[in-house]
């Protein structure tokens, strides 16, 4: 089992290498003159100063001092013989984020899972929507489940720049949820055993989290995930709908053709060498919302980097996982049991 508390240290140690590999565009504009006996050898500032890090990028997230704390239980939503479900709030990146937490009945402490839901219009979203089946089943099988609403959803604080910033704030909120669980001091939670599960858009949040915060979780699962290349998600979901946000994003950050560096640095696939956790991906072969080829390209990138990744495919299954969900969850629970118990 990975020693808890190594996240910050491991991130710091890996930072220079991870960010350095994204600054290859830096040009050396001068060469120091040959030193003499009276002239000490000095490095050229232009040769040693890296290019500025775009604040909307994976390297910027790697550098950031992530914060998550203040987990508070609110009113009871549901009480069953197997678990009690609460409204919760926690602090993430200076914002108050709402969510739902299921705490199993019986003697803890229990391993904990953070759940990252897929896209639901924030205007209609309510606390806990998107992964209700998983919340129930995982809690019944002895896991504390914290389902984050994300910023701009339900009772969470607002972040007006999140959409133009490629929704990287959702990754901050998942990292914050894990850190809030760790620091909660609640006796029901085993802070040494922490897993992550995301669906659809939440699968992309899983990818980001694994590269930004290696060591924070012990294992991760992605269901029918989006592409690890954000430009493909824009072309699949937003551009065909004429979403005006596309023009805002491209005005702010450029297109993949005019600013390839930005799009390279916003993709978690560029940084899969940082991942330390095993990853399990579930994907249906007839998923037309998130094509299965996206998961194949993610697996290829992980395997090329020598990472522990497994793709389970489900013939004839679409994006919703209605017909084979139970079988996929048996696999998911066996995976979490292996790495968290």
TrEMBL record:
<feature type="domain" description="Peptidase S9 prolyl oligopeptidase catalytic">
    <location>
        <begin position="134"/>
        <end position="340"/>
    </location>
</feature>
<feature type="signal peptide">
    <location>
        <begin position="1"/>
        <end position="23"/>
    </location>
</feature>
<feature type="compositionally biased region" description="Low complexity">
    <location>
        <begin position="31"/>
        <end position="51"/>
    </location>
</feature>
<keyword id="KW-0378">Hydrolase</keyword>
<protein>
    <submittedName>
        <fullName>Prolyl oligopeptidase family serine peptidase</fullName>
    </submittedName>
</protein>
<comment type="similarity">
    <text>Belongs to the AB hydrolase superfamily.</text>
</comment>
<dbReference type="Pfam" id="PF00326">
    <property type="entry name" value="Peptidase_S9"/>
</dbReference>
<dbReference type="InterPro" id="IPR050261">
    <property type="entry name" value="FrsA_esterase"/>
</dbReference>
<keyword id="KW-0732">Signal</keyword>
<dbReference type="InterPro" id="IPR001375">
    <property type="entry name" value="Peptidase_S9_cat"/>
</dbReference>
<feature type="region of interest" description="Disordered">
    <location>
        <begin position="21"/>
        <end position="55"/>
    </location>
</feature>
<dbReference type="InterPro" id="IPR029058">
    <property type="entry name" value="AB_hydrolase_fold"/>
</dbReference>
